[in-house]
Design goal:
mainly alpha, 0% strand, 100 residues
């Protein structure tokens, strides 16, 4: 949990081709979103129960995971696709593999 920002910024640099500044900025943005959503989600869990909150969170995560993955790949641009390298897979194929 606490190592996610370090891992995420390294993954964005090495796998997606982001610069160090862009990777750290995106990681900081993800932590800010986490900070801003923790309180409302806690209120939702207190009001409607923890099971309802977990089910809603799982459904929302499943629905938003692929668009978020595609957004990161789209933001990385063509430099991250590793086109021309042997065994390189373009991002639509990566998205299809992610779904299946």
């Amino acid at each position: 949990w606490n190592y996610l920002p370090v891992y995420l910024s390294q993954w964005l640099r090495t796998s997606c081709g982001f610069s160090s500044t862009a990777a750290l900025s995106l990681t900081a943005l993800s932590k800010i979103v986490q900070l801003l959503t923790t309180f409302p989600v806690s209120l939702f869990g207190d009001r409607f129960g923890t099971i309802s909150a977990m089910i809603f969170g799982n459904v929302a995560s499943a629905a938003l995971a692929l668009p978020a993955f595609l957004l990161v790949l789209l933001a990385a641009g063509p430099s991250a696709s590793a086109a021309g390298e042997p065994g390189a897979v373009e991002w639509p194929a990566q998205a299809l593999a992610f779904v299946t």
